[in-house]
């Protein structure tokens, strides 16, 4: 059943209840070992409509006039209402044992015993078993891979090239082994620590730009990686002068890393002092 709620949506005030930032949810899964990925079943239909609002969802069929007693799809504030209900339901577990984005939920634990205890809590929430996975060590959350250790299995089991010519193609056997070792043990991404400055490394090439967001550990001597970013310039951006490519890279980084920059001091590290150069460049006046 598909009902046109455009007029009702235009008359309904906007519910500004915020949805969580996807990157923050993925960051919060770091340093956990066991995961369960869950999907709500008929998520909006699990929320009852207020009695006085039911008649506003009225629709006409060949068999009579009906209205919804539960929240329907396509309503303007359905997503925000469901997110508010989920936050109220899991408020004592969110950002600790569970992360929620509308009907996508992930339970996370550091031990199998703790994971079982977290899953046994009863909230009478109906789930879609076809889209749920329980007690795994890796999976996808909103398009992002959580715990990528399983992805290097093929690299670890890759055989040594059988002929000298193929080995030379890998820069020799020793280099081949070093490459395997590096790919088997990539830098582990960690969540950002509040109230501690972040370090943004920026590299700008002719056709692309790359970033690494890091942070010092408790000793202040070592750096830990929080986020990697890269992007190819478009054909139009490739024609920008060097200074404009710098500005383009900084703007793109600020948009993608907004959730970090709003809550931390960020130090920019690059081969040249971009910000100083931009502000010290004499302005031309006509």
Automatic annotation (TrEMBL):
Pfam families: RT_RNaseH_2 (PF17919), RVT_1 (PF00078). Residues 173-266 form the Reverse transcriptase/retrotransposon-derived protein RNase H-like domain. InterPro entries: DNA/RNA_pol_sf, Rev_trsase/Diguanyl_cyclase, RNA-dir_DNA_polymerase, RT_dom, RT_RNaseH_2. It comes from the Eukaryota. SUPFAM superfamilies: DNA/RNA polymerases. Residues 2-144 form the Reverse transcriptase domain. This is Uncharacterized protein.
